[in-house]
Amino acid sequence: MTWSAVAAVVMLFVIAPLVPGIAAKTKARLAGRRGAPVLQLYWDLSRLWRKGAVYSRTTTWVFRVAPVALVATAGAATCLVPLDGARAILSFSGDFVAFAYLLALGRFLLVLAALDTGSSFEGMGASREVTVAAFAEPALFLAFVAVVVASGETSLSGALGAALAGAWPTAAPALAMVAVSLFLVLLAEGSRVPVDDPATHLELTMIHEVMVLDHSGQDLALVLYGSALKLSLFAALLVGVVAPRAALPPLVALPALVAGIVVAAVAIGIVESVTARLRLGRVPQFLTAASALAALGVILLLAGSGT
Amino acid sequence: MTRVAELLLLLVILTSFLALGTARVSACIRAVALQGLLLGLLPLALYPAGGAHIWGLAVGTVLVKAVVLPRFLNWAIREAAVRREVEPRVGYPMSLLVGVAAVAAAFAISSRLPLPEQAHEMLVPAALATVMLGLFMLTTRSKAVVQVVGYLILENGVYLFGLTHVERVPFLVEVGVLLDVFVAVFIMGIVVFHINREFDSLDSSHLSALSD
Asked: Would you call B85 helix, strand, or coil by DSSP?
């Protein structure tokens, strides 16, 4: 564990609410509106934190655990990603499986909480969220496999390190396909536009927003913060694949990470402005395309390495 | 220059996937037109010192595959009043998965083929993959126009195979143009007979549904 790894994780915790803010600002600017301030989510969080939560009589302890678990799992997953480009706080062989399933655990508990409310409406949202997650998972794993094949390392810290930077010049097309696939996964996991719409409040089109309708006060603040953290974590992962920063000193690598995350947030905003939300039946097709892209990347990397 | 060729071959495979995954007939045609353009650029990237023959091949390919045939297809859609949806027999996600399996098989097979030493090692797998993707599209789409697009993709794969030998037997590649003429005949057939769906059926179960 190095000081830069700890500093990077703390930094991501601090800047996480910025990502949805930048995406929303980009979207507003492209539509010719002034839009909410970039720091809006910080104000929202502090306001919600001062409020009390209301609990329905049908809910149990599951409902109260879920928001805390969401932030805790996302925070634990953050510790596995080499945010400073060199080394994560925690690193072991095959830790990308832990990364994927820590996030899945958080989602699972949130789904349980949605079911716990006893509302059939929230149950519907939960079922949709799980459907999307089931289709996003193969794409995420194939992207991890591609990165592992390209670098020859089996931990995230190794795979996103110097070996990957060495693989880029020879396998650029394959890695670019993997990066695009990861971006599509980011859109799905972060509940962004082609899959879900964070701004909608029309009952039939909501996915992620439905599940958290019953949360209020500090619980809602935790849910919002957890979602933002997950989104910026995926953005950081994408930056790690596109621009491995192992050779850079930490004082350069950290600002580079922030710049990369900002670019990813702007890209999310642009995508949200130029694409319409997909019909729910089309979402599996969208995510299968992401998986296909990542699988083609793996095939090309395997063919390129001469096996 | 071989890096450019590799990138072009990759884009050729991706355009096949585009045609396979899209739900609209017009997007299908756009994808195959883009593929034709890429195929036209490919000889220039593969044989930079090619001379007049290679340039002729490139210009001819772009003209036929990227301009004439797509326009012809669009005209056929208008004339025969074809509806915009592709109407696949195998769903889009499944199509994409089969496509990935086909590409994997193409790379696996061509690594075992006893080929002579070639500078452009991605050419044969890309050709095999394109042929398989085209054949898959040809067999799993129920609309005649989309089947023609599938046939065009298959034929583009054959053209890619031809490119491996373009320096020794240029005649082979030129004969490939005859296949394009065949496509034109297909499209004429669609227009003349106003065929919207499959050309014919050998499915005898239709007979049991007959009534007087």
From this structure: strand
Residue B148 within any structural domain of the chain: yes
CA-nearest residue to B6 within chain A is A173
Q: What is the CA radius of gyration of chain A?
A: 19
Angstroms from A177 CA to nearest CA on chain B: 10
Q: How many domains would you assign to chain B?
A: 1
The pLDDT tens digits of the residues spanning B99-151 come to 999 999 998 888 888 777 665 678 889 999 999 999 999 888 888 888 888 98
Question: Six-digit token pair at B191?
Answer: 């227009």
Contacts of range A242-247, beta carbons closer than 8 Å, 24 or more positions apart: A242/A179, A244/A85, A244/A160, A244/A161, A244/A162, A244/A164, A244/A165, A244/A168, A245/A84, A245/A85, A245/A86, A246/A85, A246/A86, A246/A160, A246/A161, A246/A162, A246/A165, A247/A162, A247/A165
> Cβ of A285 and B6 within 8 Å?
no
Rounded to a whole number of angstroms, the CA Rg of chain B reads: 18
Contact flag A292-B111 (C-beta cutoff 8 Å): no
Report the candidate in B70, B63, B34, B60 with the shortest Cα–Cα distance to residue B173. B60
Burial of A284 (0-12, 13-18, 19+ CB in 10 A): middle
Integer distance in angstroms from the first to the last C-alpha of chain B? 67
* Domain that residue A252 falls in: 3-304
- The encoded tokens of residue A105 equal 């655990």
Q: By the CB < 8 Å criterion, does B2 face chain A?
A: no
Domain interval for residue B102: 2-198
Location of structure tokens 């083609």? A296
ipTM, two decimals = 0.83
Q: How far apart are CA A231 and CA B130, in angstroms?
A: 37
Residues 6+ apart with CB under 8 A from A254: A4, A7, A8, A11, A83, A84
